[in-house]
Structures are given as C-alpha cells and as structure tokens.
Design brief:
326 residues, alpha/beta, Rossmann fold, eight-stranded mixed beta sheet, 11 helices, 39% helix, globular
Length: 326
Amino acid sequence: MPFRIRVTLIVLASLFAALLLLPLVWPVPPLRGTVPARQLAAVDAAWIEVGATELHARITGRAADGEVGVAFVHGFGSTLESFAALQAPLADGHRTVAWDRPGFGLTERVLDWSGANPYGLDAQVEQAIVALDAAGIERAVLVGHSAGGAIALQLALAHSDRVAGLVLIAPAVYRGGGTPAWSRWLLWTPQMERIGPLLMRQLGGEPGENLLRSAYADPDRLRPEVLEAYRHGTRVDDWDRGLWELVKASREPGVAGRLAEVRVPVLVVFGAEDRIVPPEQTRRVADELPNAELLELPSCGHVPQEECPEPLLRRIDAWWSERIAP
C-alpha cells in the first residue's frame, strides 16, 4: 500500500476513534439551580399520578354528570399555561383540565419506569384518559395544539367514547415526531446518551426563549405568565434528561392516514402567519377530516390560543353551540 494512502487511512481511523470516544470522556457539568417540581407550582395546582409519572395539572370549572368537559393538550416546548386565556373563560360553563405533558412544565421528569415508556405517544394518550378521570369528565372536547393536536386525534381514534369533539390548533399531523426511523438507533448509543441531555440544555435560557418568541407573528404579545412557565420548566430537576427521553421516544404520529375515521365535529384553527406548521398543511387536515370546519386567524402565528385568544374563543363558543351542545 502506498505510504500516502496508509497515512490517510491512519488519520481517518484516528478521527473516527476520537468521535466515538470523546463523548464518553468529555466532562458533563451538572445542572445547577434546579429544584423538585412541586416547589415551583402554584398552591392550587393539581397533581395526577399515572404509573411512575406525576402530571402537573390545572382543573377548573364545575363538574356535572353527563355534561361535556374540555381537555387541553399542549405542543412541544410548551406548558399548560399556553391555554390559560381559553381555560378560564370556558371554565365558566364547563369542567376543564389541562396538564403539562411529560418532558415539559412541572410534570415530573421520570427517568426509571417499568412497562410502557411514559414519554411515548401511546402512554401520553393513556395519561390523557387518566387526566379526564381525575377531573371527573366523562366526555370532552379536546383542544390540541401542534404536537398536542396529533395526540388529541390519536385519543379520538383510540377512545371515541370519551371524545365529543376536537379543536385542533395548527396540528402537527404530516411532519414532525422525532428523527427518521433509519437513524433512530443513534439516539440510544452510549455517546448520544451522554451528550443528548447537553444538547437539550440549549433550549434553556435565551436560546429557548427566542424559539418561544419565534412562534408569534408579533413577539411582543408573549405574555409574562407564559414565559415564566417556560422558565420554570427549565428549573425542574433533571429537565434536560427528561426532554432527551421525550426526543428518544418521539415517533411520527401515524394519524395522517386515518383522518377519515374521525367522526366527531372538529374545528381546525391556524394563524395566517404560522411559520412552524405551514398553513397549507392545516388546510389539508381540515379537507381530509369528514366533519371539520376551518378557521383562519389573520395577524397570528403558531400559537393563536396565546396570541389571538379573543377571536378564537368567540369562534369556539359559536362552534360549540352549533355542533356540541344538545
């Protein structure tokens, strides 16, 4: 073998070995300033146990047998606070429940469990059922945003008896859901298990808050309460490792090909200036659902429930009176 080729192969092999070994020996600084989730919660917070997971929740409104309630399922990087401007008014006439999905907000970051992965889609659907039970809601209108919209659709398909209708806000149905299947094994390598939580830490502090603002057509509309809830989520013990577990467990939602099976009334909502879930994808969701109405909100981005709650709430009230109320 020529000397030049031999040297090149040695250099390439050395680089490859370094790539494999460096993540295993690189020092990982511990998280600082984190506390147990309950220390950050409001005094009236609800806590819902689902197996090894303790969901941080907000339960409001009156409970009445047989009446339809409301359940809120937030998207990636968000918290139950995302729905506060909707939940409070709707609680005047309905029992409501919202919770922080695993990996977000003040829900416990479970790192050891038996049985189903609590960060997986199937487990999150079952967590929603337990949340409905905890709130005393027999049937609900599910309000799902972005990735939470896909979870709401999956719940409607798996537990149609518990769902009276859906409000899907910029639902992430056709894309998203983690890494491609062919590369997913990389997430479970010892190297990625070590550096993955470090990568998640980039969603804390200013970079994460800038990502939050990018979901708005007008970032000045970001409410202090929403920002503070996001910050709290990055102060919970093991928040980086919990978020990494969620990333590893994420899959394509698999509901895109089953939209025709959803028979309940659906209100599909999007902001005209959504740069995260393209409006044409949300229109496609509405077209493929057999019983859907579409609402476009001008001068609004990816989070209409936060940025444009008043017109959204008015349309939900009208839609509910027309399609849900007896």
